Amino acid sequence: MEDTLELDVLLYPDGLRISTPDDIGEWDLETASQLSVPTAQLFVALFPYNPAAMSPNHETAGEELPFVPGQIIKVFGDKDMDGFYHGESGGLSGYVPGNMVAKIPVEDDYIKYLLMQQGFLPVDHTAGISFPSDVHTVPSIPDNVTVHRMVALFEYDPWESSPNMDSENELPFRAGDIIYVIGDMDQDGFFYGDLHGRRGLVPSNYLQPLPWE
Q: Which end of the chain is more exposed for a tag (fewer CB within 10 A), N or C?
């Protein structure tokens, strides 16, 4: 039996030549850098979902993700042909019905991390936290006033979206903006907030409470 010798050959601009271990290592690194990494999106559950009882696909219900309203789900990729995403939440992963969840339009990775750490969007948006004395982002706030740190889930343009005639008193913002809410919600469902020194009324249903850093 004849001995065979296997060699790696790479094509270079000046022709073929036998590759060295360093050549192969550089090629592997370059190839890996070109691979696309799926970006995670965050969704919130709108309804309770028990796959064993509710799935339209009884044979594969065990591959689907159960959840409850308000639960935050990390989703990878797009919806499949059956209308399902693939996501994970609470240490479990599986398929998620697209008609039972809504996307949270936040692109900032740190905000995503905070929301995933929290795990849920609470029903009570007025639950606050005392304003710490060493935080100076919101100036001129009396010590006895509660300040809530919140993230904007959606973009809001008062001139286009406000239900009120006096929209000039409201604060425009973009999804992902951090807004410091002063006091409690008023009877119309608005907070009084501060964004980079600008203050005005903000609709409570556009915001999500965040923990203090």
A: N
Measured CA to CA, the distance from residue 170 to residue 148 in angstroms comes to: 17
Which tokens hold the place of 104? Answer: 């949270």
Q: What is the mean pLDDT of the chain?
A: 75
- 3-state SS assignment for residue 212: coil
Q: Which residue has the tokens 């990494």?
A: 37
Q: Report whether 52 contacts 61 (CB < 8 A).
A: yes
Q: Determine the Cα–Cα distance for residues 137 and 143; give it in Å rounded to an integer.
A: 14
Q: How many CB atoms lie within 10 A of CB 49?
A: 20
d(CA 158, CA 68): 32
For 148-176, the pLDDT digits (tens) are 888 888 888 888 888 888 788 899 998 88
More confident residue, 109 or 135: 109
Does the pLDDT at position 2 exceed 60?
Answer: no
- pLDDT of 180 > 50? The answer is yes
d(CA 25, CA 31): 10
Count of residues making up the chain = 213
CA 206 vs CA 150, 155, 174: distances in Å: 10, 8, 10
